Amino acid sequence: MPNRPVLLPIAPGSIAAALLLCSSLPAQAAEAPTGQTIQVPGAWESNAPAIAGRHDGFAWYRAWLMPHDGFFTKHERNLFEESVTFNIRELADAHELFVNGSKVGAGGKFPPGFESGRAGNHRHKIPPGLLRKGEWNEVSIRVYNHSGPGGFLGEAPFVMDYFNECVLEGEWEFRPDDDGARFLGGARTNRPARATFDRYHESHRVLGEAAQFVHGEKLPPAESLKALQPHREFIVEQLLAEPLVAQPTHLSFDERGRLWVAQYRQYPYPAGLKMLSRDKYYRAHYDKVPPPPPHHDRGRDLISIHEDTDGDGRFDRHKVFVEGLNIANAALPGRGGVWVMHTPYLLFYPDANRDDVPDGPPAVHLAGFGLEDTHSVANGLVWGLDGWLYGAQGSTTSSRVTRPGLDPPDAPGVHFEGCMVWRYHPGTRAYEIFAEGSGNTFGLEIDAEGRLYSGHNGGETRGWHYVQGGYYLKQGVDPGKFGPSRNPYTFGELPVMRPTNSIQRFSHFFAVAEGTAMPSGFDGKLFALDPVHSVVIAVERLARGSAFETRDIGPVLSSADSGFRPVFIVNAPDGSLLIADFYEHYIAHGQHYQSQIDPTTGRIYRLRGKDAMLERDVNLGRKNTAQLVELLNHPNKWHRHTAVRLLGERKDTSARRPLKKLLADGTVHAPLCALWSLYQAGWLDETTLRSALKHTDTNVRHWAVRFAGDQWGTHPGLGLPGTPSRR
Ligand SMILES: [Ca+2]
Ligand SMILES: [Ca+2]
Ligand SMILES: [Ca+2]
């Protein structure tokens, strides 16, 4: 190792040092000749006046860092090695950072062309391979002070990986000159005499968006498309990409068949908020509850609309419905406007005249969703077949949900900590928790029978199938993270969908493919998204009692470009599946919080059968009531479920009789869709419900039970022998 630095701690001027220097080492390996030190943080004028005096211009700092062993932990795609960053704030005025003699980052610019880098968070990634395990690694900082106090004016710099941090607060070596060659050597095996740092704790330093995004490698959209490999029975098309679309986290469709995209470009740091504290799970507390739009802190999130006006299957008209949003990750049209999950609020943007311009500021329907961790905030808006709006909440947030304008100002709200599924009725304004627990749920899927599902952020399952009132994974995993169950009398938890094969971590989300443009043999299969491995996997559902097991069929879409990060999938009006690709080199939230992210990229793909025809009659907004009733047996799930929603919204009484007839003697999907429509329209009377409870279709009976409970409440004598029925 010819360029290895000094092997022994040496005193300046010692014979040993002289010998070492003469024999094999470059001059820069020497100690600072004056042996000067300075306290960090602190302005150098006041901190070390004897050394620095009233000094503007260049100076150098140096310290010695023993890396945490965790910095070298091998993991898939180097999750932990790729997470090591050196953090500098309020260093006056411009700086360059060197680790073991290699420049790893800069803040501001040195003269000529001086620019201050004092403001902002400078988070410099230390590339894997640069740090030396078990050695004292040299950290050197060249600083230019333009005027006024110089040096670290705020806090000491710190180094962190995913979980651990070391704050380099204390004595550093210091040179009030620009003779940096003397501060650029390399790691040492023996502990230097001073300026050494080796104490780590679980990371909790407050963070914020860095002045520099580190996006890693990336391909332009066309190149990335070429790297996609669909299964032989499928074709994949790129429908949208940056700059029109970036960071798509949620796709939905209005009744005209147009695509709505929530673009989560502000993630992970909310705009306008100052982090006061956080824990190792990246659960943060901020300095205030952000106000809702329109008087909000403007962020980069936006909601866009994409339309195919000429029916060629390609979006050709693009609009931005609303922009400047701040932590908005889902948008769902319906009931005369658009519902937007904008943590901490569920917003409704009215657009009664359907001109794609909000008729006014949004109504705040719900408030109090937690903002602790933006990778697990409330998300996944979807219309249930009962007419309720369903959403999820992830693992590392809590919520205390109230209904502004309805609940008293001091109402305690509905409190919950961790993963769950909630629902909200836009008409009655009822809010409730539908199912408790799961695994950082991000996205909700509803199948042809109205069952509710999500993915999971762990391995060995494709995800969750939720039943009303179900308790799922929560307690017992890590009480410090999830907290106990709310109900001490539970008989345990309902299981995940058990797999019949091993499953690697993880299936972020899936859709049940029930469109007309799927190849035969794939109808009803789960299409699971694994963003870590850049693959979409087809999965068979196996009915097991009242639950499901799964068996993987295999990949249907994979990519040689690891930037392909599928995060959302949905059945489209044309019968295909649309897939939202976050497009990131790094896909772990810990890295995103370190600003290793590219908020300017994202793509949307269409996956369909190679020989499939796309459905073109997708504007249900033009259908009359009789036509909507006919659609209840359409082979495309989107048509059926959208028709149910529209019948429920319109409440055109001419539909009542045909719906009751379909419930009684319809075939295939029609009885169930008729039951849903009747319930949503408010026409499910007791006589109709009683007959539905005896229907030959299991799913009709199941939903009749649910509706009976939702409409009339749980029977006081339910399950008790000899208790007479209530009329
Ligand atoms: Ca078109
Ligand atoms: Ca409007
Ligand atoms: Ca991206």
Describe what this molecule looks like in 3D.
With 727 residues, this protein is α+β, with helices and mostly antiparallel strands. The relative contact order is 0.09. The model is unreliable at 1-33 and 722-727 (pLDDT under 50). The termini are far apart. Strands 1, 3, 6, 7, 9, 13 and 14 form a 7-stranded mixed sheet that branches. The protein is elongated, with a radius of gyration of 30 Å. A hairpin with a 2-residue loop joins β6 (94-99) and β7 (102-107). The protein contains 12 helices and 44 strands. The chain has 3 domains: 15-202, Galactose-binding domain-like (Jelly Rolls); 221-609, 6 Propeller (Neuraminidase); 621-634 and 647-712. The longest helix is centred in the C-terminal third of the chain and has 15 residues, at 698-712. α8 runs parallel beside α10 and α10 (670-681) runs parallel beside α12 (698-712). Bound molecules: calcium ion (CA) (3 copies). The site of one calcium ion (CA) has 7 residues, from loops.
Descriptive keywords:
Jelly Rolls, Neuraminidase, 44 strands, alpha+beta, disordered C terminus, 727 residues, six-stranded mixed sheet, 31% strand, binds calcium ion
Fold topology:
Elements: H1 15-23, E1 37-40, E2 42-43, H2 44-47, H3 49-52, E3 57-65, E4 85-89, E5 91-92, E6 94-99, E7 102-107, E8 121-125, E9 137-145, E10 151-152, E11 158-160, E12 164-167, E13 170-175, E14 196-197, E15 201-202, H4 221-226, E16 228-230, E17 234-241, E18 248-253, E19 259-263, E20 275-278, E21 284-286, E22 301-307, E23 317-325, E24 328-333, E25 337-342, E26 345-350, E27 363-369, E28 379-383, E29 389-393, E30 398-402, E31 414-417, E32 420-424, E33 431-436, E34 445-446, E35 452-454, E36 464-466, H5 479-482, E37 498-499, E38 509-512, E39 526-530, E40 535-544, E41 547-559, E42 566-571, E43 577-581, H6 589-593, E44 603-609, H7 625-630, H8 637-650, H9 656-665, H10 670-681, H11 686-692, H12 698-712
Parallel strand pairs: 3-14, 37-41
Antiparallel strand pairs: 1-13, 2-10, 3-9, 3-13, 4-8, 4-11, 5-10, 6-7, 6-9, 11-12, 12-15, 16-41, 17-44, 18-19, 19-22, 20-21, 22-23, 24-25, 25-26, 26-27, 27-30, 28-29, 29-32, 30-31, 32-33, 34-35, 35-36, 38-39, 39-40, 40-41, 42-43, 43-44
